[in-house]
Sequence to fold (284 residues):
Amino acid sequence: MPAADTTPLSYAAFTDDPAGGNPAGVVLDATGLDADEMLAIAADLGHSETAFFTATDTPGVLDVRYFAPEREVPFCGHATIAGAIAWAERHEARPLELRTPAGVVAVDVRQEDGRLAATLTSVAPSVAPIADADLDELLAALRWSREELDPALPPAVGYAGAHHPIVAAATRERLADLDYDYERLKRLMLDRDWTTIQLVWREAPDAFQSRNPFAAGGVVEDPATGAAAAAFGAYLRERALVTPPARVTIHQGIDLGRPSLIEVDIPQGAGSGIRVTGLAVRMD
Fold:
């Protein structure tokens, strides 16, 4: 049997421009790699996450693990989109079943206007309140105040494979001025098992801008976060802020100079998975 090719690939997810979106690492054959080796590859590559794929005996069914530069995470949306498209480029565009630490995630890869697009369907999502003390500490680490929040989008913690506090700014200016206490936020995120912080501003009924601090993974900010987008879709449904079935668009990475476009489809049914769609393009 030939040795596994563990050479990491770099793809920009949620964009068709290598200079946009969120860079993701992709290892398409992680056979035989242990967790320490995966973490070392992810740290050396330096992207916010790297996805490690291992084929199973069943065609179209893959095992996947995700590593940030400093830790393993249970699920990562942008590396899923990037990895599924990278896989399709070398095999075929077909539905995939990904067995992730968070559960089974279905991904549909298809041709759209001459490009490959991928849609993931999250695990069963949920939304939980955020404790007042946790919100106070989160806002203190962000250097935000409660008066700067949008009362129509109250804070909560969304889950669609990973946990993401959702905090909505009342103005675009508040979202743009992101200068947080990295170590303080990192401690809080690790203590509460939060993957990224989903900061949003609603620019239209079906359009949002977002920023995602990722201090828990050793990254200051994520330019595109598919897992947080899925959690946010569940939040909008649970809080009756959209009428399902609904589609919302999330623009992220603008303030980092890496614009991304994330489409979120929100079906009816509290336990049904959220669908997140995006493009991806090879960077190297």
